[in-house]
Design a protein that fits this description.
Layout (H helix, E strand, L loop, with lengths): L35 H9 L5 H7 L19 E2 L17 E13 L4 E12 L3 E7 L3 E7 L2 E2 L1 E4 L4 E5 L9 E10 L13 E3 L4 E3 L21 E9 L3 E3 L3 E4 L8 E7 L11 E4 L1 E8 L2 E8 L4 H11 L2 H12 L7 E6 L8 E2 L6 E3 H4 L5 H10 L7 E3 L6 H17 L5 H12 L3 H5 L14 H16 L1 H12 L3 E3 L1 H10 L6 H9 L14
Parallel strand pairs: 1-4, 2-12, 18-19, 19-21, 22-23
Antiparallel strand pairs: 2-3, 3-9, 4-8, 5-6, 5-9, 7-8, 10-11, 11-16, 12-15, 13-16, 14-15, 17-18, 20-21
Helix pairs in contact: 4-6, 6-7, 7-10, 8-10, 10-11
EC number: 3.4.11.2
InterPro entries: Aminopeptidase_N-like_N (IPR045357), Aminopeptidase_N-like_N_sf (IPR042097), Peptidase_M1 (IPR001930), Peptidase_M1_aminopeptidases (IPR050344), Peptidase_M1_dom (IPR014782), Peptidase_M4/M1_CTD_sf (IPR027268)
Cofactor: Zn(2+)
């Protein structure tokens, strides 16, 4: 993500209190429901009021009480949250999603989004119940075709209790029907992942946005395939990630359904949906199908500029592939959206980055911005952060890639950028207090855009080009989720130089690194 000009965004105030990175536990929460409720259930269920019962006493199903001994005595209640210390409620424990089949309908007159999402998952343990993340209202849920108990726990957490426990290691399917007005809802930090600009609507954001339009295991540690269908009134376009399979199901006179499919797994925050009046350009370049979309709210001249800048993507990908190995996905694209109040200039939606239109047409920024977001296809998308405090693995590389792109295209060298920015930041005490190992939630998307690429260029000086390029390529070509500690271990494995002093200075240190050869600064 680019939420500030990456050339110089040191924070103006000190960070949150720094602390050592703790172990990352997985918690299991047990919810006990009073036995007296079963007496009410025995009265209601014979009357055919099972649906009412699930609302009166959510989480009960077929007389089984969450927290009491299920038929499978090894079954547990899956945890709410995966143990992310910055976002403790994000994601859920006990299962791994393999695929989301999302089908939503949006009515611009009421701004109500309704739909059904089918989740294919595999249990990691025997589950008496488990959680899903969604900020809209769930109206019905089934597990493997059977009605399941339902209980809301917090702003975005729903406990699902299957009729019978899910066996450990088994595949299971959850179907969720839901509706609501996502524009009314804010995130944990007061932000609005769902935004509107005139007759254009967008749901996109980092670290969260999925919960505004589909139920999920909403944490980057659980990437999955996406199959997305968005039904909108005829005349509007609905743009998302992956390959455009069809733009009209031809089943309704006044509505179109746009169908998008991803062929590689992605983290939930890397999806988006944009609904409005867009101009689309489609084709194939370097064997990759592409879709570029630009909001019709721009003037004709600005639309041309936006498309010109989006269409540099293929050339940039070729250069980035020389740095990081082959492009990891099967589609290419980008979208320029109208909202001038977006909290970011660009966001690395997988295969189709989302750009704020006014940033994309800025002649002093567009080249760097597009390069940054495309570099995320390798770092942040193909290789995903294990937890949010691993943001260095994503943003540091995307920012350094913009330096490397400029170096290869007649601009300043990455080394000159390191020296220039280090000279400006050297005496900025607040800047260095925000570490890469623990930037803190408040500074998650600030200092990493500058300290991150400086660290990588300094490491390049220490390791040498050959070993540094090997590090970048081997890391980027191995898809999955990994931590900053994993990256440091990988770097150390590729050089006989002891990198611990370097990491202490650049990753852990709270003051400017000494200008020594060991720190890549001499």
């Amino acid at each position: 993500m680019s939420n500030v000009d990456p050339r110089w965004p040191p924070p103006g105030s000190g960070p949150e209190q720094l602390s050592a990175r703790p172990r990352r536990p997985a918690w299991v929460y047990l919810v006990v429901v009073a036995v007296a409720l079963t007496l009410v259930a025995t009265l209601l269920l014979p009357l055919g009021l099972a649906a009412v019962w699930r609302r009166v006493a959510p989480g009960l199903d077929g007389g089984v009480l969450p927290g009491t001994a299920p038929s499978d005595r090894s079954a547990v209640d899956g945890s709410r949250g995966v143990g992310d210390r910055y976002y403790p409620d994000a994601g859920n424990g006990g299962y791994d999603v393999t695929r989301y089949r999302i089908g939503v309908s949006f009515d611009p007159r009421t701004e109500v989004l309704s739909g059904t999402t089918t989740i294919s998952a595999r249990s990691l343990q025997s589950l008496h119940s488990f959680f899903l993340d969604l900020r809209l209202n769930i109206t019905e849920v089934t597990v493997d075709g059977q009605d399941a108990g339902l209980a809301k726990d917090g702003d975005a957490n729903w406990r699902i209790t299957p009729a019978t426990p899910v066996e450990a290691g088994s595949d299971f399917t959850v179907e969720v029907a839901y509706d609501g007005q996502p524009g009314d809802l804010t995130d944990a930090d007061g932000g609005h992942p769902w935004s509107r600009s005139g007759e254009e609507w967008l749901v996109s954001g980092e670290p969260e946005s999925a919960a505004w339009w589909f139920p999920s295991n909403d944490h980057p540690s659980d990437p999955a395939l996406m199959d997305i269908s968005i039904r909108v009134p005829r005349g509007l376009q609905a743009v998302s990630v992956g390959r455009l399979e069809s733009a009209d199901s031809a089943s309704e006179a006044d509505w179109d359904t746009w169908h998008w499919v991803s062929r590689q797994p992605m983290a939930t925050y890397l999806t988006f949906a944009a609904i409005g009046s867009f101009t689309l350009r489609q084709g194939v370049v370097d064997g990759l199908p592409y879709v570029y979309a630009v909001t019709d709210q721009l003037s004709a001249d600005d639309r041309r500029t936006a498309f010109t800048n989006l269409e540099t993507s293929a050339a940039k990908v070729r250069v980035l592939a020389g740095l990081f190995g082959p492009y990891p996905f099967t589609e290419l694209g980008g979208i320029a959206v109208a909202d001038p109040e977006l909290p970011f200039d660009g966001l690395e939606a997988q295969t189709r980055p989302v750009y704020k239109a006014r940033s994309l047409i800025n002649p002093d920024y567009a080249d760097e911005l597009v390069t940054h977001e495309l570099a995320h296809m390798w770092f942040g998308d193909n290789v995903t952060v294990r937890q949010w405090d691993d943001i260095f693995d994503s943003e540091a590389y995307a920012s350094w890639a913009a330096w490397a792109w400029a170096e290869r295209n007649g601009g300043p060298t990455a080394q000159s950028e390191l020296l220039r920015i280090f000279g400006r930041a050297r005496d900025a005490r607040d800047f260095w207090r925000v570490t890469m190992i623990d930037p803190g939630r408040r500074n998650l998307f600030t200092t990493v855009y500058v300290r991150g690429p400086m660290t990588l260029q300094a490491l390049r000086n220490v390791m040498g080009d050959e070993a540094f390029t090997r590090l970048n390529t081997e890391w980027a070509q191995d898809p999955g989720l990994r931590s900053l500690e994993d990256w440091m271990a990988k770097a150390q494995s590729l050089t006989p130089t002891d990198l611990q002093p370097f990491f202490q200075a650049w990753i852990y240190g709270t003051t400017a690194p000494a200008q020594t050869a060991a720190n890549g600064l001499a």
